[in-house]
């Protein structure tokens, strides 16, 4: 018996083959159970009591990506889940490691990404009696309100069932984050091998189809057929559900224009003839019927109010019945999984005659042309700014990313996020990953690792300097695993910008001020990456082309002016009015 829970802390090498070949541990059962449901990758950070478990998982063929911070490992797991449609797995130690990782698991839940956080936890008895045990924390109770489902396993015999349940909960219905608490005694429990082998089973239909009711499809199709100015709003639920084929067929057959949410860019091409990407306000104000396809009427869509016309009727395709009517009455809910719902609508389509206004699409196309010209002018006006501003840098990046549509783009920041999203035309589904529903910072390095590891594709991250800071240390993980990732940092020296004023005059930096002269490229250098420090668009262009071609870990430090960028980017309206606004 080589892998009990007692000797985990000092283990340096992989545990030797069991000296009692007829016995296995809970850790072995856990690794095997994950393999049984098809888990191939795990992201995490080891320590007591899960170190040996990670070794055993590797030994069993599960790839383990060791991180420097659990939150970043969790962001990798959620990105893996989003891109593959199978749960990403995060492994954490007890107490703080668990809490650090839980941030990502909560974020996954809010974004409907399937992931499973597996955390070691200390033995129950002294935790329940508050007797001050090692890293004693009632982790299950803390996780519960933040995740889709949470379970604790106390006995090795229950591990296969627990893993299957966690998997089903993460992936079926509306996907989300699941917490699986595995106690130290359970991880170290010894079972006879034949008893353990008999515990495993192959679960049937882990993610069942959930077709909509016929009546719901009829109601929706009637409304769509009668619409004069219809539009389809594509959300990241559609990207996740991988229904680009069905959406394309629906758009081709009906001629209805579409508008993608941020991470749904590229599900259908941003620059297709029926793309109304540039006409968001017009659609909100003029469309009479809007089909929400895996998009929520949450704050990102003004919760159905704001610019939206009061008379717009909604068809909502969503897997979660509780999502319907949350902010506005939904005239035609189609509750089901998107593949089943769109297939049913396509099947019904020949029975209906569309009545779209002949002028609707041409007017959107004319508006698109006009907006695109304005946008091109803005880029041209800023093309030679010195020092560079966001638009100068994005102008240099845009043609390169668009010439490499299969590169996955990860994007976070405030102005860096908004301007990059607006500027870069996406043509392939699931190639844009960003701060998403909670608009959080700190998803960057984890997401690039999850994206590169789960797809094998090259990844470029466009990061604000502040955003990068949240997860920057895990740039080292990109280097250790030699991933084809380029991290581009827009350094404007601060949160929003680098020109904040400290109102006290005591010489301390303002709350938003960071390091305008920081040489982030040196950070890349210390982990062996290719690095560039660029001050002109030509230098940036050369560096990015070289890094994409090399497929090597690369860090490009882009020096912007400190005055580039405004508070909160596009969502400045969410700030409360403040003293600073009045007095500065
Ligand atoms: P966006 O921010 O792009 O609008 P959201 O994350 O807000 O996207 O919304 C995605 C929606 O997609 C969620 O309401 C979720 O329930 C739904 N969804 C996720 N997977 C599926 C699926 N397979 N079928 C149908 N709806 C889905
Ligand atoms: Mg900044």
Tally of distinct domains: 3
CATH superfamily of the largest domain: Thiamin diphosphate (ThDP)-binding fold, Pyr/PP domains
Low-confidence runs: 1-11
Q: Hey, roughly how much beta strand do the residues contain?
A: 15-25%
* Strand order, sheet with most strands: 3-2-4-5-7-6
| Helix-and-strand structural type | alpha/beta
Number of strands: 19
Helix content: 25-40%
The termini sit apart by: 68 Å
Q: What gyration radius follows from the Cα positions, in whole Å?
A: 25 Å
Largest sheet: 6 strands, parallel
CATH fold description of the largest domain:
Rossmann fold
Morphology:
globular
CATH architectural type of the largest domain: 3-Layer(aba) Sandwich
Characteristic terms for this protein:
binds adenosine-5'-diphosphate, alpha/beta, 23 helices, disordered N terminus, Rossmann fold, 584 residues, 6-stranded parallel sheet, binds magnesium ion
Describe the structure.
- 39% of the residues lie in helices and 16% in strands.
- The chain has 584 residues and is α/β, with parallel strands linked by helices.
- It has 3 domains: 23-197, Thiamin diphosphate (ThDP)-binding fold, Pyr/PP domains (Rossmann fold), CATH 3.40.50.970; 214-358, Rossmann fold (3-Layer(aba) Sandwich), CATH 3.40.50; 382-579, Thiamin diphosphate (ThDP)-binding fold, Pyr/PP domains (Rossmann fold), CATH 3.40.50.970.
- The strands form 4 sheets. The chain has a 6-stranded parallel beta sheet, with helices on both faces. Strands 15-14-16-17-19-18 form a 6-stranded parallel beta sheet, sandwiched between helices. It has a 5-stranded parallel beta sheet with strand order 10-9-11-12-13.
- Helix 16 (390-403) crosses helix 17 (415-423) and helix 16 (390-403) packs parallel to helix 22.
- It is globular and about 75 Å long.
- The model is unreliable at 1-11 (pLDDT under 50).
- It binds adenosine-5'-diphosphate and magnesium ion (MG).
- Residues 111-112, 174-175, 235-237, 240-241, 261, 263-264, 294-296, 298, 300, 318-320, 323, 337-338, 437 line the site of adenosine-5'-diphosphate (ADP).
